[in-house]
Amino acid sequence: xxxxxxxxxxxxxxxxxxxxxxxxxxxxxxxxxxxxxxxxxxxxxxxxxxxxxxxxxxxxxxxxxxxxxxxxxxxxxxxxxxxxxxxxxxxxxxxxxxxxxxxxxxxxxxxxxxxxxxxxxxxxxxxxxxxxxxxxxxxxxxxxxxxxxxxxxxxxxxxxxxxxxxxxxxxxxxxxxxxxxxxxxxxxxxxxxxxxxxxxxxxxxxxxxxxxxxxxxxxxxxxxxxxxxxxxxxxxxxxxxxxxxxxxxxxxxxxxxxxxxxxxxxxxxxxxxxxxxxxxxxxxxxxxxxxxxxxxxxxxxxxxxxxxxxxxxxxxxxxxxxxxxxxxxxxxxxxxxxxxxxxxxxxxxxxxxxxxxxxxxxxxxxxxxxxxxxxxxxxxxxxxxxxxxxxxxxxxxxxxxxxxxxxxxxxxxxxxxxxxxxxxxxxxxxxxxxxxxxxxxxxxxxxxxxxxxxxxxxxxxxxxxxxxxxxxxxxxxxxxxxxxxxxxxxxxxxxxxxxxxxxxxxxxxxxxxxxxxxxxxxxxxxxxxxxxxxxxxxxxxxxxxxxxxxxxxxxxxxxxxxxxxxxxxxxxxxxxxxxxxxxxxxxxxxxxxxxxxxxxxxxxxxxxxxxxxxxxxxxxxxxxxxxxxxxxxxxxxxxxxxxxxxxxxxxxxxxxxxxxxxxxxxxxxxxxxxxxxxxxxxxxxxxxxxxxxxxxxxxxxxxxxxxxxxxxxxxxxxxxxxxxxxxxxxxxxxxxxxxxxxxxxxxxxxxxxxxx
Length: 756
Known about the structure:
The protein is α+β, with helices and mostly antiparallel strands. It folds into 3 domains: 8-33 and 499-750, 3-Layer(aba) Sandwich (Rossmann fold), CATH 3.40.50; 50-194, no CATH class; 196-343, Dipeptidylpeptidase IV, N-terminal domain (Methanol Dehydrogenase, Chain A, 8 Propeller). Helices cover 15% and strands 35% of the residues.
């Protein structure tokens, strides 16, 4: 059936030479037809968001407003508004305030914060990306009274070289990371002091290494004490950590080289410890946390209460991440004692859900100890643990009000694809759904004010773009609409898209997977249509969500494809602990089987699906899943697209892969059986590999190893490399559009759209 002539198709040439494929969408009028030009070449379907920052009083907020005309058109000013009062706002910082001496244009605003009395503005600008986020840039301080605007960092500071600058609570200093150390700058006399000492090119302070940042979700590595007299910080020692190399082949006549510490599965981690440096003396007291710092992770560190400058609360994971210790550490001598221990036979989950009550007597805590992610209140000594959210459903804590009376959380007791807001008293009473009952579906997100009296509510569903409103709580009354996306709604309505269907797929007795489906608008049930499965499938994600997005999938549906997704067991779906642990030590084994079983089930149940045209595509972990699909189930899948995949699990990082798979020495067979590269010899269908050459996450190296393995087995396949591409492949002009053009052309050629 398949031509066995070896070819590595240069898809760029294919794109230039291939004739356009006629599809069902060609019959639609222009306003109803989605194209890649409309999706990626214009801002026609760009969803607008309204961003604000609540002030500590809980009733006021600041926001950015773009100047629409004049010399500073496009620049932003900062305004202040009071929730619930009226529609008016007042100017807080004008664009004129942000014009440096000798300059003509104001500084661009990439981020900002105020002192507690709003007299000082700390402005972040000229930001540059460090891995995922723009976390390095320039910082300026504006005195709103004197109108003095001054750049921080000193005259010897390079452009875009400061990280994580923060005002001290008393507004007298700013601390920031520059190079390997934390620096302190006085706002009165502008003197700069270095607070930490690195002593080695492999040691750095106040920021995180690659793997902590990626897998534990922490970037800012220091915390001001509430009394402004000390800073708690992380220190890393990367000596002995193997370094990964990325080549930039476009940098000049010779490639540029980037090398960074990246501990792969089973390899040596950086040593991490926490310390507290006193502002007056510069002396650091190291926290006496037990255990080998290379075999444990100091995953969280905060001051133990908003008014507590004597103690820190720490969360430490062991390397296998099945045990989490919560400790109270003393600022004066670094001593630490364990007050709470969480253990799970598989892995424990890290949260940012620790909130102290106003008196510092207890804190909130999220745990799966009863089989569901539930909310608890824990006494300061850890001896009293009170469950706050009874019920067979998972919760996602959003906020605890300043008075310590109510906890607000998202949950979806009846449908894992949806999210609604609830609250419960910290005494365990008064559990109430706050999202109105008339909201039967969708994903509802909230940014709640410190007092819990107001919130910014954003609502969307799979058929409807978002609307953002200012509301009061607990009555959920809409005060005003902040962003209605009215133009986007109008354009989406004109598309006349088929409604997204949500359903369950039974793959075995009493085992049902959440699923969603996008059909062609005019599907004829007497004919057969190609099925494309969009997959992620690993423990870090959930794809069956009732939220807006995925216009490329709708475009393909207009062209005559059926698009489905299934959340297999082991995915991050809110269906309880047992569900999520099903993939433990079976990544790449159990999930692809579930996906294949789901595909077989829908093929049986829906005769209008064509079993001769079944494909899978995914990005990152979803790319790996698609490889496993076509390698392990060649009788089921004829086509697969793998973007930014990890063909060999041994090449991924310690924290993520060891959390779910253990160490290769302990789980060798599963590492082999879960890695698609070991089954490349089974390829029979159509395979497209896409990868960014600068991917710091899922490395280009492992992609090339798969390419080499396919060549070894004389397998025909297609590939596309993006020279500037990182994990998101969004670098360089037209890169993201080109990815989707490439995938679309490949599908048209290998799995033609439309009914038969």
